[in-house]
Amino acid sequence: MSAVEEKIAALGLKLPEVVPPLASYQPAVRSGSYVYTSGQLPMVDGALPVTGKVGAEVSPEQAKELAAVCALNALAAVKSVAGDLDKIVRVVKVVGFVASAPDFTGQPGVINGASELLGEILGDRGVHARSAVGVAVLPIDAPVEVEIQVEIVD
Fold it and tell me: pLDDT of 112-153, one tens digit each?
């Protein structure tokens, strides 16, 4: 088990299997020293634990937890092409999408769930640039979706 996976386990979490694509794309691709993930939904054991809009059916607190699940799924996607999470030099960028009720403006707080988990797992290597975007709807009515870009070394 890699040091990163040991840290994940120490947090009481488990690196999941890669979430199978819902359409025509790969969960992650490598280009040079970078791995780009596709948008990761908060799938747990093949299903969304909750659906709906943040600020309506889904609370911001729930959505923040779901964003952390997305980040964990993104790390699984990174491992699928990098082979080992210890190869991560740094998380370069996180992009988070929040399916938002019309008056909800707390997208940054929701995506903090992903950012904070990456920081807990990777320390300084988890510090990144980020966007948090409110959208009308996400695939299969997911409340949140997160994609990451990481730099790796062989």
Answer: 999 999 999 999 999 999 999 999 999 999 999 999 999 999
Q: Could you give the strand order of the β-sheet that contains 129-135, starting from the edge strand earlier in sequence?
A: 28-31, 34-37, 144-152, 88-99, 129-135
- Cα 137 to Cα 101: distance, rounded to the nearest angstrom: 9
From the list 50, 51, 54, 138, the residue with the least C-alpha distance to 104 is 54
Q: Which two tokens stand for residue 3?
A: 């040091």
DSSP codes of every residue in the chain: --HHHHHHHHTT--PPPPPPPSSSS-SEEEETTEEEEPPB---BTTB-S--S-BTTTB-HHHHHHHHHHHHHHHHHHHHHHHS-GGGEEEEEEEEEEEEB-TT---HHHHHHHHHHHHHHHHGGGG--EEEEEEES--GGG-SEEEEEEEEE--
Tokens linked to 142: 């997911």
> First and final CA of the chain: distance in angstroms?
17
pTM of the model: 0.97
Backbone angles phi, psi at 38, to 5 degrees: -75, 165
Q: Token pair for residue 105?
A: 């403006």
